[in-house]
Design brief:
The chain is α/β, with parallel strands linked by helices and about 220 residues long. The chain contains 9 helices and 8 strands. It has a 5-stranded parallel β-sheet with strand order 2-3-1-4-8, sandwiched between helices. Strands 6-5-7 form a 3-stranded antiparallel β-sheet. Bound molecules: BIS(adenosine)-5'-pentaphosphate.
Length: about 220
C-alpha cells in the first residue's frame, strides 16, 4: 500500500495517516514531523528550514525532496507507506512519480481530505501536540486527560509556532497557490479519491477504509 494524503493545513492528514498506518501496518511518513525534528535538533536541514516553517511558507523543494528520497529508501518502507505532507508542489509530485516508477509500480492512491476554511482555522488554532511522541490533540474535540501532559507518554503538550494566526493565513495561501494544483495532477493520473473531512475522526476513517477496500490497493 503506497498512499499520499492531500488536504489543506488542519484537514486531518496526520490524524488519519496515523490510523491508517496502525491498521494496515505501513510506515507513516510525515514531512512536517521530520522537519520539526530537524529544527529541534538544530541539524543543517533544520537550521535552513526553520524560518520558512515559522512563517508558514513551504520549505524549498530541493531540501524536502532529498529528505524524502532518503526516507523512502529505508527498510521499513518496503511494506508500504502513507505520505503525509508530501508532495506539496507539482515539482515534488513529479520526482515522487519518477522515483516510485523506477523501483516499483508507483502510487496506489491519493486521498484528498476536504474541509471548509472556517473549520480548518478552528482545528488549527485549537490543536496541541506532544513534543515527545507527536500525538495530536485538540482543545475541544480531543483534549488530553491532564492539561499539558500527553496521555500516551507523559510528554509535554505544546502549541506549534505555525498554529498562530498569522502563520495559518500564510499556510493557507501557500496551500491554494502551490499544493491545490496537485488535485488535478492526481485526478488526471486516475489516483485521486475525495474524502469528506468535515465528519468526526472515526467517520472519516470509516470512509477511508471503505475506499481502500473497494480499490484493493
Ligand atoms: P505539516 O506538519 O505537514 O503541516 P500542514 O500540512 O499544515 O498540516 P497540519 O499538520 O497542520 O494538519 P493536518 O492535516 O495533518 O491535520 P491534523 O491531523 O493535525 O507542515 C508544516 C510545515 O512544514 C509547512 O508549513 C512547511 O513549512 C513544512 N513542510 C512540510 N512538508 C513540506 C513539503 N512537502 N514541502 C515543503 N515544505 C514542507 O488535525 C488538525 C487538528 O484537527 C488536530 O487538533 C486534530 O485533533 C483535529 N482533527 C483532525 N481531524 C478531525 C476531525 N475529523 N474532527 C475533529 N477534529 C479533527
Amino acid at each position: 500500500m503506497k498512499l499520499v494524503m492531500l488536504g489543506a493545513p488542519g484537514a486531518g492528514k496526520g490524524t488519519q495517516a496515523k490510523l491508517i498506518s496502525q491498521q494496515f501496518d505501513v510506515s507513516h511518513i510525515s514531512t512536517g514531523d521530520m522537519l520539526r525534528e530537524a529544527v529541534e535538533k538544530e541539524t543543517e536541514l533544520g537550521i535552513k528550514a526553520k524560518a520558512y516553517m515559522d512563517e508558514g511558507r513551504l520549505v524549498p523543494d530541493k531540501l524536502v525532496i532529498s529528505m524524502v528520497q532518503e526516507r523512502l529508501g529505508r527498510e521499513d518502507c518496503q511494506n508500504g507507506f502513507t505520505l503525509d505532507g508530501f508532495p506539496r508542489t507539482v515539482a515534488q509530485a513529479e520526482v515522487l512519480q519518477d522515483m516510485l516508477e523506477r523501483i516499483d509500480k508507483g502510487l496506489g492512491m491519493v486521498l484528498d481530505i476536504e474541509v471548509s476554511e472556517d473549520m480548518l482555522i478552528r482545528r488549527l488554532t485549537q490543536r496541541r501536540q506532544c513534543r515527545k511522541c507527536g500525538k495530536i490533540y485538540h482543545l475541544a474535540n480531543n483534549p488530553s486527560a491532564t492539561e499539558g501532559v500527553c496521555d500516551e507518554c507523559g510528554g509535554e503538550i505544546y502549541q506549534r509556532v505555525d498554529d498562530e494566526e498569522s502563520a495559518i493565513k500564510k499556510r493557507l495561501e501557500e496551500y491554494h497557490s502551490k499544493t491545490k494544483p496537485l488535485i488535478s495532477y492526481y485526478q488526471e493520473l486516475g489516483l485521486l479519491r475525495v474524502i469528506d473531512g468535515q465528519q468526526g475522526t472515526d467517520d472519516v476513517f470509516e470512509d477511508i477504509k471503505r475506499v481502500l477496500k473497494a480499490s484493493r490497493v
